[in-house]
Write a structure and sequence with these properties.
Elements: E1 4-9, E2 12-17, H1 18-24, E3 27-37, E4 40-46, E5 57-58, E6 61-63, H2 71-83, E7 90-103, E8 106-118, E9 132-139, H3 140-149, H4 156-164, H5 166-170
Parallel strand pairs: 3-8
Antiparallel strand pairs: 1-2, 3-4, 3-6, 4-5, 4-9, 7-8
Protein backbone atom coordinates (compact mmCIF):
# COMPACT_ATOMS: atom_id res chain seq x y z
CA UNK A 1 0.00 0.00 0.00
CA UNK A 2 1.27 3.46 -0.91
CA UNK A 3 2.22 5.88 1.84
CA UNK A 4 -0.24 8.75 2.14
CA UNK A 5 1.22 12.07 3.25
CA UNK A 6 -0.42 15.44 4.00
CA UNK A 7 -0.31 17.71 0.93
CA UNK A 8 -2.17 20.84 -0.05
CA UNK A 9 -4.47 20.66 -3.05
CA UNK A 10 -6.53 23.75 -3.84
CA UNK A 11 -5.61 25.15 -0.42
CA UNK A 12 -6.92 22.10 1.47
CA UNK A 13 -4.77 19.57 3.32
CA UNK A 14 -5.40 16.24 1.62
CA UNK A 15 -3.91 12.73 1.91
CA UNK A 16 -1.78 12.14 -1.20
CA UNK A 17 0.52 9.29 -2.24
CA UNK A 18 4.11 10.35 -1.52
CA UNK A 19 5.44 9.77 -5.04
CA UNK A 20 2.51 11.71 -6.54
CA UNK A 21 3.32 14.68 -4.29
CA UNK A 22 6.90 14.71 -5.61
CA UNK A 23 6.05 14.16 -9.27
CA UNK A 24 3.43 16.92 -9.20
CA UNK A 25 5.54 19.21 -7.01
CA UNK A 26 2.70 19.57 -4.51
CA UNK A 27 3.36 21.49 -1.32
CA UNK A 28 3.42 18.90 1.46
CA UNK A 29 4.40 18.37 5.09
CA UNK A 30 7.81 17.05 6.07
CA UNK A 31 10.04 16.57 9.09
CA UNK A 32 13.82 17.06 9.38
CA UNK A 33 16.01 16.08 12.32
CA UNK A 34 19.50 17.27 13.17
CA UNK A 35 21.45 15.59 15.98
CA UNK A 36 24.23 17.77 17.37
CA UNK A 37 27.20 17.32 19.67
CA UNK A 38 28.57 20.81 20.22
CA UNK A 39 29.46 22.10 16.76
CA UNK A 40 29.27 18.60 15.23
CA UNK A 41 26.25 17.32 13.33
CA UNK A 42 25.38 13.74 12.43
CA UNK A 43 24.78 13.42 8.69
CA UNK A 44 23.78 10.43 6.59
CA UNK A 45 24.39 9.31 3.03
CA UNK A 46 21.14 8.15 1.44
CA UNK A 47 20.98 4.56 0.21
CA UNK A 48 21.43 4.00 -3.52
CA UNK A 49 17.96 2.41 -3.64
CA UNK A 50 16.19 5.67 -2.69
CA UNK A 51 13.90 6.87 -5.49
CA UNK A 52 15.34 10.38 -5.42
CA UNK A 53 18.73 11.79 -4.44
CA UNK A 54 20.33 8.36 -3.91
CA UNK A 55 23.88 8.36 -2.57
CA UNK A 56 23.78 12.01 -1.50
CA UNK A 57 24.62 13.32 1.96
CA UNK A 58 21.71 14.74 3.97
CA UNK A 59 20.92 15.87 7.51
CA UNK A 60 20.55 13.29 10.29
CA UNK A 61 17.18 12.15 8.98
CA UNK A 62 14.12 13.46 7.21
CA UNK A 63 10.79 12.16 6.06
CA UNK A 64 7.13 12.90 5.56
CA UNK A 65 4.60 12.41 8.33
CA UNK A 66 1.92 9.89 7.58
CA UNK A 67 -1.63 11.20 7.36
CA UNK A 68 -2.72 12.25 10.90
CA UNK A 69 0.76 11.68 12.38
CA UNK A 70 2.11 14.42 14.68
CA UNK A 71 5.45 15.90 13.54
CA UNK A 72 7.29 15.00 16.77
CA UNK A 73 6.00 11.42 16.63
CA UNK A 74 7.15 11.23 13.02
CA UNK A 75 10.64 12.56 13.87
CA UNK A 76 11.06 10.03 16.69
CA UNK A 77 9.80 7.18 14.48
CA UNK A 78 12.08 8.07 11.61
CA UNK A 79 15.24 8.38 13.74
CA UNK A 80 14.64 4.79 14.79
CA UNK A 81 13.66 3.49 11.33
CA UNK A 82 16.60 5.08 9.49
CA UNK A 83 19.38 5.04 12.07
CA UNK A 84 18.28 2.79 14.93
CA UNK A 85 18.40 5.76 17.32
CA UNK A 86 15.92 5.98 20.19
CA UNK A 87 15.65 7.97 23.39
CA UNK A 88 17.04 11.30 22.16
CA UNK A 89 14.93 14.29 23.26
CA UNK A 90 14.05 16.53 20.32
CA UNK A 91 13.51 20.29 20.40
CA UNK A 92 11.16 21.83 17.80
CA UNK A 93 12.94 24.68 16.00
CA UNK A 94 9.94 25.83 14.00
CA UNK A 95 9.01 25.39 10.37
CA UNK A 96 10.78 26.21 7.13
CA UNK A 97 9.49 25.99 3.59
CA UNK A 98 11.48 25.24 0.48
CA UNK A 99 11.02 24.09 -3.09
CA UNK A 100 13.81 22.12 -4.77
CA UNK A 101 14.31 20.02 -7.88
CA UNK A 102 15.47 16.58 -6.66
CA UNK A 103 15.99 15.08 -10.11
CA UNK A 104 14.05 12.55 -12.13
CA UNK A 105 11.30 15.07 -12.80
CA UNK A 106 10.51 15.37 -9.08
CA UNK A 107 10.12 18.43 -6.91
CA UNK A 108 10.25 18.64 -3.12
CA UNK A 109 7.94 21.50 -2.09
CA UNK A 110 7.98 21.06 1.64
CA UNK A 111 6.72 22.73 4.76
CA UNK A 112 9.16 21.21 7.23
CA UNK A 113 8.96 20.88 11.00
CA UNK A 114 12.59 21.02 12.10
CA UNK A 115 13.78 19.18 15.20
CA UNK A 116 17.18 19.27 16.90
CA UNK A 117 18.47 16.80 19.46
CA UNK A 118 21.60 16.82 21.58
CA UNK A 119 23.67 13.65 21.41
CA UNK A 120 27.29 12.58 21.65
CA UNK A 121 29.56 11.38 18.88
CA UNK A 122 29.77 7.97 20.57
CA UNK A 123 25.99 7.51 20.18
CA UNK A 124 25.12 4.01 18.98
CA UNK A 125 23.91 4.26 15.38
CA UNK A 126 22.50 1.21 13.59
CA UNK A 127 21.64 2.36 10.06
CA UNK A 128 18.93 0.62 8.06
CA UNK A 129 20.73 -0.31 4.79
CA UNK A 130 17.49 0.25 2.83
CA UNK A 131 17.62 3.90 3.91
CA UNK A 132 21.20 4.82 4.78
CA UNK A 133 24.50 3.71 3.22
CA UNK A 134 26.81 5.70 5.51
CA UNK A 135 26.79 8.18 8.35
CA UNK A 136 29.32 10.38 10.06
CA UNK A 137 29.76 13.21 12.50
CA UNK A 138 31.18 16.39 10.99
CA UNK A 139 31.75 19.90 12.29
CA UNK A 140 29.51 22.58 10.83
CA UNK A 141 32.61 24.39 9.59
CA UNK A 142 33.85 21.29 7.73
CA UNK A 143 30.34 20.56 6.41
CA UNK A 144 29.97 24.07 5.00
CA UNK A 145 33.41 23.75 3.38
CA UNK A 146 32.55 20.38 1.81
CA UNK A 147 29.26 21.73 0.45
CA UNK A 148 31.14 24.60 -1.22
CA UNK A 149 33.83 22.28 -2.67
CA UNK A 150 31.55 19.40 -3.75
CA UNK A 151 27.91 20.58 -3.82
CA UNK A 152 26.90 17.66 -6.05
CA UNK A 153 27.48 15.28 -3.11
CA UNK A 154 24.75 16.85 -0.95
CA UNK A 155 20.95 16.91 -1.11
CA UNK A 156 19.32 20.13 -2.23
CA UNK A 157 17.54 20.51 1.11
CA UNK A 158 20.72 20.23 3.17
CA UNK A 159 22.26 23.00 1.05
CA UNK A 160 19.11 25.11 1.57
CA UNK A 161 19.15 24.52 5.33
CA UNK A 162 22.79 25.60 5.56
CA UNK A 163 22.33 28.64 3.30
CA UNK A 164 18.98 29.96 4.51
CA UNK A 165 18.09 28.49 7.90
CA UNK A 166 21.38 27.88 9.70
CA UNK A 167 20.69 30.21 12.66
CA UNK A 168 17.22 28.75 13.25
CA UNK A 169 18.51 25.16 13.17
CA UNK A 170 21.93 25.36 14.82
CA UNK A 171 21.15 28.17 17.26
CA UNK A 172 24.65 29.33 17.98
CA UNK A 173 26.65 26.25 17.01
CA UNK A 174 29.64 27.30 14.91
Amino acid sequence: MATLIPAWIDGKLTPVEKLQAHVQGLQHKAVSVFLLDGDNVLIQRRALSKYHTPGLWANTCCTHPEWDEAPLDCAIRRLDEELGIAGVALDHRGQVEYRADVGGGMIEHEVVDVFVGQATTDLAVRPNPDEVMAHRWISLYALRSEVVRTPEQFTPWLKIYLADHQDQIFNGAT
